[in-house]
Amino acid sequence: MLRRFRPYFRYLQSNRSTLYAAVFYGLLFGATSGLGLPSLVKYVFPPIFDHSGTPLEARTVWLIAASVPVLFLLRAVSGYLNSYYVQLTGVRVLEAVRLDYFRKLQLLPLSYLQRKSSGDLVSRGLADTSQLQFTLSLIANDGVKQPMQLVGAIVFLGWQAFTTDGALLVLICLAIVPLTVLPVHYVGKKIVKRASQMQTQLGEVSSHFIENLSAAREVRAFGLEQREIDRFGRSTSALVIAQMKIVKYAQALTPVIELFSSFGIAVTLVVAYRAGVKWDTFLAVITALYLCYEPIKKIGYLNSEMNRGLASLDRLETVLHEPLTITDPATPVAVTKLRGHVAFNNVTFSYGDSPALKKVTASIPAGTVCALVGPSGAGKSTFANLVPRFFEAGAGAITIDGIDVRAMKLSDLRRNIALVSQEPVLFNDTIYNNLALGTAVASREEILTAARLAHAHEFIEKLPQGYDTMVGERGALLSGGQKQRIAIARAFLRHAPILILDEATSALDSDSEAAVQDALRRLVSGRTVLIIAHRFSTIRDASMILVFDQGEIVAQGDHASLYAGNALYKSLYDRQSTAL
After folding, report:
1. In terms of CB atoms within 10 Å, which end of the chain has fewer, N or C?
2. Is residue 399 part of a domain?
3. What pLDDT is stored for residue 438 in this prediction?
C-alpha cells in the first residue's frame, strides 16, 4: 500500500528539516514508551516495595520517585514536538498538493473542464487534498512513533522471555499479537471502497452548492427555493449514509482488536498463575503487552486512513495524470507581435462524436473586420475558439501570418489576441485591477484612457470608491452593461492585433452601444476582428461576413452581396429585422 503513496513522498522530502525533527521525536517517544515504561515497572519500582532486604535510603527513594516524572516528561515533550512538526509538515504538504492540482487545472484544455462538474473538481481540490495531507501526515507521525513503541515493547518482552522465568507466558502472549492483523486487513478492504463513494458524493454536494449560488436569481424568479432545498437535502442524506458506512467499519476496528487483546490477557493471567511468575515480572509483561496492543490499534487506524487516502489519491490522480493535449511545441517559432492574417485550411473539429466544424477553409486578411453569422450551433464560436487554441483542431491547420498556431508558444499566441465574451467575467477585486488584467505594463493614464474609450470612465467615477471599488464575485455588484464596458476596455488596453468579440455590445443600452460602436470603429484600425454575431445590428461595419451552417462555411462576402445571393443569410437577417 505504501508503494502507491511513494510518488507523493516528495512532498514530505521537500520539508526534510521538519520531517526529520518529527521522526526523531517520534522515535524518542516510541523508545520511552515501549522500553521505558515496562522497565520502570520491572526495575525501578520493585526496590521500593521489596522490604525483605536492607531498607533504602531516603535519597535513593527520592531518586527513584523522581525518575517517574522525568520519564513521563521526556515522553510528553517528545510526543508534543513530534505532533507539532508532523502538523507543520502536513500543512506544507497540503499547500504543495493543492498548488500542483490547481496548476494542472490551469493547463488542462477547456474541453476537459467542460466535461467535468465544477463542484466535483472543487471537492477534489479541497476535500481530497485535505484527506491526502492527513494521510501523509499520519504516515509520518504514527508510521514512525507507533511501530517504534511496538518494537520497543516486543524487544522488552523477548528480553524477559530469555532472562526470567515465565518464558512460555511471553511466547503465548506474543502468539496472540499477530491475530489482531486479521480484522485490520478485512476492514481496510471495506473502507477503501466506501471512502471512494463518500468522496464522490461529497463532489455531488459541492456541485449542488455551486450550481445553486450561480443561479440564485433564477431560483428566486421561478420559486425554486423548496425544490433546491429538497435536492440538497437528498444529496447530504446520501453523503451521511456514505460517511456512516466508513464510520461503521473504522470504529468497529478498535473494539475487535481490544477483544483479541482481552483473550491474550486472560490467557496470560492463567499461565502466569500456574507458572508461578513473579509479580513484578507479570506487571512488566502486562505493561509491555498493553504497549504492544495500543500501537496495533493505532496501526489499524492508520491502515484504515491509508485506505481513505488511497481513495482520495485515485480521484486526484485522475486529474493530475490527465494528458495535456494543448501544449507548447518542443521548438516553438519565435513570435513577437503578429500582423493578424488568420487562415483556416480544411479544419475539422468535433466535441466528442458531434462534429462542430467540417473541413472549413477561410482566409481573413490582417486588419479585416470579419463577422461570423449563422444559426445557433452552426460553428461560429468554435471557429473563433480555435484561433487562440482553446480547443485543438482535429484535422487541418490554422495559421496566423503563415505560422501554424501549434508552432507558437501558447503565451506568445494568446498575447496577440484579446477576447471579450458575451458574458464577461470579472474577478473579485477592484475595478482598476480588473482593467489592468489586460496588460502588465500599462500606466494608470493608459488604463483611464481605455476606460474612457469604452465609455466606462463616467460610471466608474460615480462609484463610492471610484476605480478602487470592489466589483464582488464575478462582478455581481455591477450591472450587465457596466461589466461589459469594463471587459471591452480591458480588451482595448491589451493592444492585440487580433480581437475576438462575442457579441461584445449585447448588454449595452442603445446610447452606450452607439458610443461603443463608434469607439470600435476607431480602435479596430489595423487589427483583425472576429465578431461572433448574434444580432445583425452589430455587423454593419464588417468588411467580411462568413455564413456558417451545420459546421460549414456556406457563403462569404459583404452584407449586400450575401443578402442578394444567399438564402440562409437573407432569412436570418429578415427574421431579426421583422422582430425589431
Report:
1. C
2. no
3. 66
